[in-house]
């Protein structure tokens, strides 16, 4: 594909306890999939043991729907390759000789830009439904096409994602949208009808129930890709603000119609929407708090003068909320004058520091200190 590998997975026939014997400071982690974390200098190396086929009579390792609960049956190099997900992910390289070991025709599929599951596709998806998302991610990131059998069961088995722990799905969402291919990833998820399973709070459209993606969301995804390409930091908090803004806004409108103030309505709507979403994909508090602040700060931009405006400029999340206001203006032209005002308001103001110039206020004249008369000398 003409790409340089980002990293290499390390696999060995040594079981985790044997790895720890060789590297005493290694940490053994995981219950479902036991691994050894080895530190060499400042580098963390994840070392896996070759896995073998699951025992058919071991009910403790497999869920009734086929999902593997624990995968700690050791095996050989070839057995490990055969039990992996996609053929292109089952290529091994000997670190000494540099020889490529290919037991499943992965190199040919890689050359043909075909993504194929190893063995029976339905069984492989049922073993680990996250493979549904991985298939979409590889299509968006690598530009590969799915083999017929690999694509056949995606829509049918998408509901299995509800059985995956929300914390693990949060990690997958970050891989999907925070690695530079967010826009194509959303298009791919829509095409495979996976958005309903991943983001149940999003509004649906059309007969197939695809998530509605407006201008704001599309722009946010493209901006995220641009920042990743430029090496600038990205945060899930801003992405979640864009993804879930529409259901939050719609719920807030309902609450406002019942007499609730806009700021309070947005806060309550945010809590309701996020409480539904976290049942499917966890959102750590360090991100959900920022997302909520971005939403609830939007009405405050309407106050363009006086103390409220000065206070808003001092807010720690002002810049994130302002950037979100700019996104909203992409699909609502009436917000353009407001954006222009706050763009001008920031000039000459140091944001997010304690040293800010006063906004919309004349500077006070410094007070002159009175000199104290020296005490009269005693005779």
What does this structure look like?
By secondary structure, the protein is an alpha/beta fold. Helix content is 45%, strand content 9%. It is built from 18 helices and 10 strands. A hairpin with a 6-residue loop joins strand 5 (91-93) and strand 6. Helix 12 packs across helix 15 (285-296) and helix 13 (245-257) crosses helix 14 (262-277). The longest helix is centred in the C-terminal third of the chain and has 16 residues, at 262-277. The chain is globular.
State the gist of this model.
The chain has 18 helices and 10 strands. The protein is an alpha/beta fold and 379 residues long. The strands form 4 sheets. A 4-stranded mixed beta sheet has the order 1-4-3-2, with helices on one face. Strands 5-6 form a two-stranded antiparallel ribbon. A two-stranded parallel sheet has the order 7-8.
What topology does this entry show?
Elements: E1 10-12, H1 16-22, E2 27-29, E3 35-40, E4 43-49, H2 77-82, E5 91-93, E6 100-102, H3 106-111, E7 114-115, H4 121-127, H5 130-142, E8 145-146, H6 148-152, H7 154-157, H8 166-177, H9 182-191, H10 195-198, E9 204-205, E10 210-211, H11 215-229, H12 236-243, H13 245-257, H14 262-277, H15 285-296, H16 306-314, H17 318-331, H18 336-345
Parallel strand pairs: 1-4, 7-8
Antiparallel strand pairs: 2-3, 3-4, 5-6, 9-10
Low-confidence stretches: 353-362
Distance between the termini: 99 Å
Main β-sheet, spatial strand arrangement: 1-4-3-2
**What's the β-strand tally?**
10
Could you spell the SSE succession in H and E letters?
A: EHEEEHEEHEHHEHHHHHEEHHHHHHHH
Instruction: Please count the helical segments.
Output: 18
Main sheet properties: 4 strands, mixed
Mean pLDDT: 86
Specify Rg, calculated over alpha carbons: 27 Å
In which range does the helix fraction lie?
40-55%
Return the structural class: alpha/beta
Oligomer: single chain
Strand content: 5-15%
Shape: globular
């Amino acid at each position: 594909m003409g790409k340089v590998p980002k990293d290499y997975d390390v696999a060995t026939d040594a079981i985790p306890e044997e790895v720890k014997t060789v590297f005493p400071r290694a940490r053994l982690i995981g219950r479902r999939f036991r691994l050894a974390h080895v530190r060499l200098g400042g580098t963390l190396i994840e070392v896996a043991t070759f896995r073998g086929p699951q025992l058919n009579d071991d009910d403790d390792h497999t869920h009734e729907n086929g999902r593997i609960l624990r995968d700690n049956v050791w095996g050989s190099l070839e057995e490990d390759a055969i039990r992996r997900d996609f053929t292109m992910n089952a290529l091994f390289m000997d670190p000494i000789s540099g020889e490529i070991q290919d037991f499943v025709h992965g190199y040919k599929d890689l050359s043909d830009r075909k993504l194929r599951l190893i063995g029976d596709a339905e069984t492989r998806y049922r073993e680990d439904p996250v493979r549904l998302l991985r298939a979409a991610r590889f299509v968006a990131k690598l530009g590969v096409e799915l083999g017929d059998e690999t694509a056949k069961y995606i829509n049918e088995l998408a509901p299995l994602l509800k059985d995956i722990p929300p914390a693990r799905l949060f990690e997958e969402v970050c891989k999907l949208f925070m690695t530079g291919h967010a826009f194509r990833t959303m298009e791919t998820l829509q095409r495979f009808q996976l958005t309903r399973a991943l983001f149940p709070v999003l509004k649906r459209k059309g007969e197939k129930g695809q998530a509605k993606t407006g201008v704001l969301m599309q722009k946010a995804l493209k901006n995220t890709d641009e920042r990743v390409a430029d090496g600038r930091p990205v945060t899930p908090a801003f992405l979640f603000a864009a993804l879930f803004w529409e259901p939050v806004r719609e719920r807030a409108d309902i609450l406002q119609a019942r007499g609730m103030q806009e700021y309070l309505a947005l806060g309550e709507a945010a809590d309701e929407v996020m409480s539904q979403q976290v049942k499917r994909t966890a959102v750590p508090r360090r991100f959900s708090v920022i997302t909520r602040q971005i939403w609830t700060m939007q009405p405050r931009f309407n106050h363009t003068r006086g103390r409220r405006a000065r206070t808003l400029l001092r807010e720690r999340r002002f810049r994130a909320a302002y950037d979100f206001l700019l996104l909203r203006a992409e699909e609502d032209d009436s917000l353009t004058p407001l954006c222009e005002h706050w763009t001008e308001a920031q000039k000459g103001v140091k944001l997010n520091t304690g040293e800010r110039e006063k906004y919309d206020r004349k500077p006070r004249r410094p007070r002159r200190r009175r000199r104290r008369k020296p005490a009269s000398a005693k005779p």
